[in-house]
Amino acid sequence: MEMREKLAERTKAVEAVVEQYLPKEAGHQKTIFEAMNYSVRAGGKRLRPMLMQETYRLFGGTGAEIEPFMAAIEMIHTSSLVHDDLPCMDNDELRRGLPTTWVKFGYDMAVLAGDALMIYAFETAAKAFAMTAQTERVGQAVGVLAQKTGIYGMIGGQVVDVELTDKPIPEDKLEFIYRLKTGALLEASMMIGAILGGACAAEIAKVEEMAACIGLAFQIQDDILDVTGTAEQIGKPVLSDEKNHKTTYVTLHGVEQAHRDVEQVSQDAIACLRELPGENPFLEALIQMLVTREK
Amino acid sequence: MEMREKLAERTKAVEAVVEQYLPKEAGHQKTIFEAMNYSVRAGGKRLRPMLMQETYRLFGGTGAEIEPFMAAIEMIHTSSLVHDDLPCMDNDELRRGLPTTWVKFGYDMAVLAGDALMIYAFETAAKAFAMTAQTERVGQAVGVLAQKTGIYGMIGGQVVDVELTDKPIPEDKLEFIYRLKTGALLEASMMIGAILGGACAAEIAKVEEMAACIGLAFQIQDDILDVTGTAEQIGKPVLSDEKNHKTTYVTLHGVEQAHRDVEQVSQDAIACLRELPGENPFLEALIQMLVTREK
Asked: Which of A32, A108, A146 sits opposite B119 (nearest CB)?
């Protein structure tokens, strides 16, 4: 089977897991359930829960306690998109060709839907306590989920990004934004897979390093594609960063250096993977695909 | 010492605990730390963490693992106020005489500050895993924190309240809103105190019932004070509910029935407390004060 087919199959399997943990659309608060589920179902390739599950498998994990965490990371990722799209933030009306949550359900309900997804992620993750005797691992995973999502993770990156909108971004802050805004959730995903799979502290640290490399490579590649890709390939107008005078890795370092760096960081990620015990050829292929993607 | 003085003293002690867990205002994401801390520091009597700690003491708890949860419940309570005040929600510019978070830090930063407080509450609570050998209790407490805060708790009540703004509210929905929007966080506070204090399942259920009664009594009393209190007593214009054609317990049942019901529900709360093992005279006095308060 080709990687593309395999990926489509895994995406479907991961989606079925996430779907299981979505709230039933019934009761007085039905509207929020609809808004939450609408937002999650509009999602893409489900890379975060997929990376989580594959890392769990790499360490030999076979239990079901990974599943609530897979749903949780997707809920948190979705919550950040719902709030990012709000009029007071990016003011986006479309995402993946569908009306954004605030357009569909109203501004107030979109604020609440983002909040609800954030909290429900933790409610969902906490279900894992009853699914394994390894409650300490679950506790550690909940801690990582919060750390990498919060002010020293995703939201921290988001804050700096919002503050620098329409301003030139110095190099250290751009790396900070990339590391936190994009990287932190990938780190959480893979670290939680490792923790629940029984990895030791040194292995968890290696997984964190690997995920950080993947996040950075992914982000640099994004900036390169904005310059070199076609609108069809990347699904948005090309050179949109340049037109918006946005500081990117490419505007700071040039496209050739960016190419070299994405190559280096990708190799670092694969090197980390190979230092880890266990084998997961699909995970390796997935990482390769992510960092060298052309759209 | 009079109850008023005792309360002031305990509020100060609880504030010192909460303060310990607030983020340091340093680093690239400084603005969000400032917005979070500004919002939390603008708070009132710290009743939720106080009720949590006193319930913990009722069950003989003496450890420090209650402290991160005390900070967490106050962060979540604050996050809901920050988002409630947003222009797309209640559009409030003042809270306790201070500019609300969105007025002070901007609309986008207030959305992010609410998000940040919500997630940081879980990051903070997760610190308790390293503070006690009773990790299962901590896991259960994290689960309760999420449940009572989320779509089947505080946010669920908020959603129904927002949907019924400027509309007549049927009796069952009003009770639903009161139970969830006001009651759920009190239930979380006291249940977490009981769980970490080592209460058994039946005791935790009794504590939940007690907290629900306190929440309902508190809320009915609020509606009564809007009709019978002076502006000075309640710190906002009297009859504001009536002027806004807002459905309240008093508009549905009349002020006399409301008085009788608050009395009954308060007695139920005290009866629950007396059925529990252990003694905590301050907790009993605190509950009495909450349900019979005149402001």
From this structure: A146
